[in-house]
Design brief:
Helix content: over 70%
Radius of gyration: 27 Å
Structural class: mainly alpha
Distance between the termini: 56 Å
Number of strands: 0
Amino acid sequence: MFDSFRQSLNDLMDRATPPEERRAVLARMKQTLIQAKMGLDELRTGPLQTRQRLDVELRELETMRRRKAAAAAIDDAETVALSEKYEAIHAERAEVLKRKLDAQEAELVMAEREVAEMTAELKLAAVGGTMPGGVAAADAASARAEADSILDNGAHVASEIDALGRAGARSAREAEAERQLAELKRRMGK
């Protein structure tokens, strides 16, 4: 995704681009940036989910340790052995989830940095920065306004997509509730 953005930017910067072609290149860059921002939103949910799973594993690990200690106090060898087995399993899962969380957080930082760079590059390309021949001040101001508008529209599109996703999830929950209610009524003979 970032490669196509970079290629569009290079195409725009490497040659004197006619205005109509320049708009098409900027539009491709805008689309890529919108996709990157939506991908960034998805990347943000990964660490949250992993952190939740890690919390569950840590609680389970602590539970196994308490059970093992309680079983050892009453000389219940079988429970101690089972507790040790599951303690090892939960400890291993927790360690894997910690490494996964570290990797996801590092990936998120890298992606946020790339999106920030892409945003700056799009704005620079829209105002004609470092392009042969330069751009007049009035053109630069209008191009900057156009770039800001493009970026704002991208955020609007992403929020609309999120709203559609929430509406779809709500609709699915309501349909499931209706199905369960119908099943319950059927069982009760109504």
